Amino acid sequence: MDRRRFLELTGAGAGAVVAGVASPSDARAEGPGTPEASPRRAPFVRVGQAPDVCVIGAGAFGLWSALELQRLGATVEVVDLYGPGNSRATSGGETRGVRTSYGDRPHGPQWGRWANEAIRRWKAWDEEHSGREVAPFFYTTGDLILRAEMQPYLERTMALWDDLGVEYEQPSMDVVAREFPQIRSDDMTVALYEPQAGVVRARRVMESVATVFQREGGTVTIGRAAPGRVDAGRLTEVTVEGGDPISAGTYQWACGPWLAKVLPNPMEGRLRIPMGHVFYFGTPPGSNAFNWPNFPSYGVPGCTGWPALPPDHRGFRVRTGGRPPEDPDVSQRGVIPEEGLQRGIDFVKERFPALADAPILETRACHYESGPSRNFVVDVHPEWENAWITGCGSAEAFKQGPVLGDYIAHRIMGQDLEPELAEGFRLPEETFESDEG
What we know:
Helix content is about 25%, strand content about 20%. It is built from ten helices and 20 strands. A seven-stranded mixed beta sheet has the order 6-5-15-16-17-14-18, covered by helices on one side. Strands 8-2-1-13-20-19 form a six-stranded mixed beta sheet, covered by helices on one side. It is globular. It starts with a helix and ends in a 25-residue tail after the last helix.
């Protein structure tokens, strides 16, 4: 694609491409090992030229989109307040599960289809970017769902799997007890097992995407970005605190739980950002029973988790509940309220007897973000025709990141591959009630 065609597709006039893009030298995400440009870089890129697209946010929405935009022929600069894989980011945790069991979601068929494709792409990313010196990012664990009785969620999930051709099993509880004695299941009567589900090393893979993006010609800048000048319904620049403004033809706002802080007008009342708590319990000395590949990821009422993964050895992962929204810039990730801490301990004692006395080795907490539609948002800003809002991941966007980024990039480039999805991804007109958590 040549430059004129790109500008036509994105609606950017010739005046949108100007020279002089700069940020403070100490804000560049560069240092030892910063990748050089590779032959995959867009052929029309010229040093010192303004980017075609400025992506604000280096999480799952932003980085995957930036990489795919670049591969479609755009020059791209990413700006993030704290950097790819940082500890405040929703995508910056140690691990994230990937499954297709969305029978309980109104958008389940589409999410399940994307998640199924994402699993294939996660494996492909591993094949290309992990190896002797880089541990895998995706681990096929299988996912075990246990319930006390058959539920509509399970029935809809199996129907979804049948439609998608996803492999699954319905093991008897005797089989579950024999194959997975680590988990107490005598109070359960129904089990579903998805063999191809897995777990991604989240922070590490976001660092990997950022590295590949830069190697292929992209730029990552660390700094606080905010909307700048607006002219005739078009955003003409974003300001970067302590640096020069960035002018681009198109802007993608992918700020996760910061969306309402950065874009208060369209997002006010349309974003909820509760905190989720995760615990990593120490596995028994000398035993690999709770390590991959000897135990799957699991979902039981009130809790999800997965085995300890070999590269990082954080421990056996347990997630139970969370707490109300806070400011993502200052919320305490390392301090978990006593009630939440005790909930995790009690759950492990009840469900995993061999871990009853296991120590908590680490904790993690992150903000999830969701909108009134409970679906992702991929839509043009209501007041700026050259700006996109992408977010509201509903705790599921990271799993689908490779597919989601590809979709967003094609939308921005005017090459919508699935136009039937656009309506579902619109910025909702409705808002949350003021007292809704």
